[in-house]
Amino acid sequence: MYEMDFRPRRVCPSNIHVAVSDDGSTIERVEFTGGCNGNTKAVALLVQGKPVDEVVELLAGNDCKGRGTSCADQLTIALRQAQENARAVA
User: Fold this and answer.
1) Please, which residues have CB within 8 angstroms of residue 48's CB and are 6 or more apart in sequence?
2) For the segment 4-40, what is each residue's pLDDT rounded down to a tens digit?
3) Which CATH number fits domain 2-89: 3.30.390, 3.40.50, 3.90.75, 3.30.1490?
4) Residue pair 37/57 in contact by the 8 Å Cβ criterion
5) Residue 90 pLDDT level (bands cut at 50, 70, 90)
6) 3-state secondary structure at position 77
7) Domain ranges of the chain
8) Threshold 0.85, pTM exceeds
9) Backbone angles phi, psi at 2, to 5 degrees
């Protein structure tokens, strides 16, 4: 399993901790620090065990209040970085 912390931009959470499978293909765990507690917990539960590519395709570009991004969108950036890093290490 590959784990990393990601500092999101222009959203409420101060950190997104992601864990992906060794090959970077599957989301093992997601934890948000800050943000809307119920929503971030729900997103984390919904994506656990799902393929990174599927979640990125579904959530990338999601906008919150005209910010040009959202917690879900920032999660996709974190997941792509974790995926790339996991594959580089493997």
Assistant:
1) 27, 28, 29, 30
2) 999 999 999 999 999 999 999 999 999 999 999 999 9
3) 3.30.390
4) no
5) confident
6) helix
7) 2-89
8) yes
9) -110, 130
